[in-house]
Amino acid sequence: MSNLPNCPKCHSEYTYEDRDFLVCPECGNEWKVGAEAESGNGQQVVKDAHGNVLQDGDTVTVIKDLKVKGSSSVVKIGTKVKNIRLVDGDHDIDCKIDGFGAMQLKSEFVKKA
After folding, report:
1. What kind of architecture, by CATH, is found in domain 1-39?
2. For 50-61, what is each residue's pLDDT tens digit?
3. pLDDT of 96 above 90
4. What residue spans define the domains of the chain?
5. What's the rounded mean pLDDT across residues 80-108?
6. Sheet hosting strand 80-81, strand order edge to edge
7. Which of 27, 71, 39, 89 shows the shortest CA–CA distance to 97?
8. Pairing mode, if any, of strands 16-18 and 21-23?
9. 59-112 maps to which CATH number?
10. Are 81 and 95 in contact (CB under 8 A)?
């Protein structure tokens, strides 16, 4: 029997691993392996694509062209995003990007500037 954690959304015990993610077949939630690990002060540890720890207020740079859902626009590689805010969920960075407005990004597509 495996020692996988329960789903953080629906608390189902039927989670399974799929590459670097854990998946819940009941609600469809996906999260990174190790994302449930927290630092000593109770805060979630969020790391960029290179393994640097991110904090609220940091400036990051986009490392890949990202399509904007519901639009034909693209956030270009090298776009700087200032004053990020870390949130829980699959898209763990909340920010405002000039020309696009408020949006959420995955930490795996940014590097700390």
Report:
1. Single Sheet (2.20)
2. 989 999 999 999
3. yes
4. 1-39, 59-112
5. 92
6. 80-81, 60-62, 110-112
7. 71
8. antiparallel
9. 2.30.30.40
10. yes
